[in-house]
Here is the input.
Amino acid sequence: MFGFLKKKRKSLTGIDIGSNVIKVLRLEMSEERPVITHFSMKDLPPEAIVDGEIMDRELVIQTIQDCAAEADIPDEPVASAVAGRAVIVKKIVMDKMSEEDAREAIYWEAEQHVPFDIDDISLDFQVLQDDVGADQMELMLVAAKKDMILGQAELIRDAGFFPLVIDVASFANQNSWELLSSDSLASVADVMESVAAEGDGDDIDGFESEESEMVDQEEGSDQFIALMDVGGGVTNVHIIKGGVPIFTKDLPIGVAHFTEEFQKQLGLTWDTAQQVGRGNLEDVDKDLVLDIVRTVGSEIYKGLEPSLSYLKTAGEADGIDRIVVSGGGAHLPGLTAYLSEIYSVPSETADPLAGLDFDPDLFGSDDPAHLSPLLTVCIGLALREGVNS
Ligand SMILES: Nc1ncnc2c1ncn2[C@@H]1O[C@H](COP(=O)(O)OP(=O)(O)OP(=O)(O)O)[C@@H](O)[C@H]1O
Ligand SMILES: [Mg+2]
Here is the structure.
């Protein structure tokens, strides 16, 4: 958009500022598959980010710097993300017009659909169907709060990096998923390109659009896929179909809520309860653990229910066809199976490392297979540039 960097980069570092764990990961694009060249992750104390709000900015900046120093991240531009609640994705129908005219008219249209002051948001859209009858066309509207994007860019700058891309975490999750699924229409990057860039002149290049060479060949490309990132504090549900985001929502339920219940009901210390959440079931009542996971997990189901009913009534989605669980919550014993059961659809754990090359020593004593679902957003960020370049 601002043409800051027309040439595609061959490498990019993603910085995922999770409320529990900060991750930094650098990818280099090779002929075959992207290669992880640098990696580090560090826990953040619970008081640093509460309910998605940064409470202790200095600590967050220090932890990013500690991660970057440990991983020896080169002095290059980086990609990071704001949380899903900074963004609204909505399908809308409006009068048929040229894309140029729609770019102006969209602000008037958006007022009816976005619960924020129009002056406070950046908007973009993609035409999904240029003729849906009655002289109308269908668009995907994406609205992002400007102050969150600008605040994030400043944080990254204060940590000593150049914020080349400010993404939305749920879109980074989708990007990561598409690395493996070849279910990509490159639509998210296109639509979001100006959202970040608009906010801050040519300082941020926003979302580079990528002409994907991947063929939409997955048999599941007409399926509604629910990408569920169960993080430390929040579960982000991002529903896509054929590479197009249909819906995105943050639910206030994360691993911490499960851990609290393990602690209470099993009489454990916080540390041991956390180990249970990571799948360590030695010396605990397994049936009770599974019960707790179902009970707390049902809050995800209940939280999502009104939105799914709405999508059904609006004729936008009949339901979910497949679930992919990422984030630290992917290790909660029985959660993925529970979600599969309650929605009566297949579910799986995200494994973005399966699409990358890396030296396992990069992860020290940690098992890469265990870390893989936690790295989904960070990998999606590091993939933002350089793909197919
Ligand atoms: N190997 C691991 N290392 C660190 N945390 C883990 C691990 N396995 C499971 N967890 C649990 O997962 C949670 C962190 O998950 P994740 O990294 O997805 O959260 P986050 O990105 O920090 O949070 P959010 O996305 O809600 O802001 C922690 O609560 C932690 O107990
Ligand atoms: Mg996260």
In short: The CA atoms of residues 64 and 288 lie 37 Å apart. The first helix runs from residue 57 to 71.
